[in-house]
Amino acid sequence: MSTKTKSTKPKLKVKAKPETAASNTRLKLNTAAIDAARNSLSRGAMTPHYGPWSQDIIQLLNDSLATELVCVLRYKRHHFTAQGLASPKIAEEFLVHAQEEQGHADRLAERIVQLGGQPDFSPDSLAARSHAAYNDALDLKAMIRANLVAERVAIETYSQIITLIGDKDSTTRRLVEDILSNEQEHAEELKDWLAD
């Protein structure tokens, strides 16, 4: 006759997590903000959700606009002055990059207006507000290097802007993420040219 013995292993008890204030909070819309959105119609898309950050975001976008415009000018200069055996192909790519940077500038300016701001196209302060530098090099490798430096600066700047904006303005964040992706493509292309 065999006797089965019950396992003497103690059963693990799962402790309930202590409730915190956050776990008691339900997801609810802010009805006061929704009511406020029914007013101030002249503000267009600017609802109470944008809070106190809209002016900071406009400033970040205006500085990025200056950067894009300086990049357009630098790429255009390099397009027209590139010389050497490899220059026709690279000069054409400089023009493509200039056009893409102009597209970025246009999108940034449009978003600034949507946020209730004024895009700053002033040539007097353009270079001072730009994160990237203008460059008038005549050597093809120096041009490529200057453009790669500028693209890397733009990548770092846009990455920081995305972090700063976080969930404060999802539309602007998506716009900046899209521009960032294009700047990363430019940097990879320039890196390859510099290696040739």
Chart the SSEs and their pairings:
Elements: H1 21-24, H2 31-37, H3 54-81, H4 87-114, H5 126-129, H6 140-165, H7 170-195
Helix pairs in contact: 3-4, 3-6, 4-7, 6-7
Could you explain how this protein is built, in words?
This protein is an all-alpha fold and 196 residues long. It is 63% helix and 0% strand. The chain has 7 helices and no strands. It has helices at residues 21-24, 31-37, 54-81, 87-114, 126-129, 140-165, 170-195. The longest helix is centred in the middle third of the chain and has 28 residues, at 54-81. The protein is elongated and about 65 Å long. Residues 1-20 have low confidence and may be disordered.
Helix content: 55-70%
Q: Total strand count, please?
A: 0
Provide the β-strand percentage band.
under 5%
| Cα-to-Cα separation, first versus last residue | 85 Å
Structural class: mainly alpha
Give a brief rundown of this model.
This protein is mostly helical and 196 residues long. The protein has helices at 21-24, 31-37, 54-81, 87-114, 126-129, 140-165, 170-195.
